[in-house]
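Before a colleague's protein record goes any further, I have to sign it off. Would you go through it and say whether the fold makes sense for this chain? Take the sequence as given and treat only the tokens as open to question. The record follows directly below this note.
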Amino acid sequence: MNELKKHINPFESTAGAMSFLKPKVMILVLAIISVLVFIIAKTEILGLATIVGLMIALAVVSKIFNKPKSGIYLLIVMGFFVTGASRYIQAPWGLTIDAMLVLIYIALFFKGFAVKQPWNKAKSNLTLLASIWMGYVFLQLANPEVLSREAWFYAMRGVGLYQFIAIPLLFMLFNKQKDLNTFFVIWGVLSILGTLKGFQQFYFGVDPFEQRWLDQGGAETHMLFGKLRIFSFYSDAGQFGASQAHSGVVFGILTLFKKSNIRLKTFFACVALAGFLGMLISGTRGAIAVPAVGGLMFLILRKNIKVLILGVLFGLGVYVFFAHTTIGQGNAEIRRMRTAFDPNEASLQVRLTNQRKLKGYLSSRPFGGGVGATGNWGQRFTPHSFLANTATDSWYVMIWADTGIIGLIYYLFMIFFILITGAYNVMTKLTNTELKVQITALTCGMAGIMLASYGNGVFGQMPTGILMYVTMVFMFISPKLNQTITDNLINKKL
């Protein structure tokens, strides 16, 4: 009798799509559809775009709450596209990075009610370094030289906040070799897309939206002697060139030394080739510092004197080619790269003149003029100030002008400590060949970006910023990953 009571006739139950036949559900669905149709009829394409946007946003929120790590993947993708998106739709796209970081933290907070979250994984010297730097940036609000706290709010995000928020998340969520492999694939695909977009501009010109951006002021720095400096969907040509050179170095090393299947090696080779081609068409001279220093760092990490000597000789050959010959002078890209080796080049002299001006101004201001005092934010919020009207043309000069000599000394200590830690781990602690090649590639890429940031403000801009944060975390956790891989291999043998 009990078995009969438990038995449910499937033909008498209502489930799945049949649930929509219930009167209450049908009325609710029809009401929602009617409202949506009314909104679209009244607002036309804007209403449709808003509804689609809300649906996508709800899907993204749901996905991140179910799997917070997916937010990291999306964050990397957004890093490549948010700046370029503003050329097509006028919106504060940069704030979406902030929103995504906060959303991941909220997802982890609520997920913590069901499953204990490993917050202890975020404990690291890297987290401490980033926290101290963010603390100094926050204290800049009390700097008596600050002219606009609104400028501080916008500028401090790229200077310190993103790094401060992202690094603990990466330690918690993005901390396995599988994550590192996925990171390389996502980065590689996005880098290839960046080069393809760059070639579209190089051969066919810009689209109407990009032309509008050039007409509104972008042409001042991106149209030189009637020739376009390629910027792809990045913030500017400087970021595009350095980022593509970064990809060329990292994926070039992976191609040559990582033991993988032939399809993956072919993919890495395509990314490396696309990266170097993107660097060449960008018209950015400073980007050449990335393969130059990245290559030198690689030779050092190999700990092979013969290879180091050959590499130095090759580097000297490249220097002689650009600095003391006229070979390939008919090619515009080679001709522009060659100017990077000319100590009397006009723009270099302008930069040095500006740095001398800043040195005099900052000599009595050890804490600088306040975060946001220079560059675009200075021009926007304090357009008549000295710092806003003195070009920094460098990430480090900007740090110096905004945070003073004290800020610059700590910042340089922080990034060199990170780089040296990565190099030390590669040379002394990593025994797994595959992981060692991966961390070597990341370390060399970071070294190149560090030097390139002297010529352009690439370190704190997207997508280089998010790529650097991921790089730093994997450089620090690589010994633990190496131990995990070793233990797994031992267990398999047993």
User: Anything to note?
Assistant: The two ends are 55 Å apart (CA to CA). Strands lie at 223-224, 227-228.
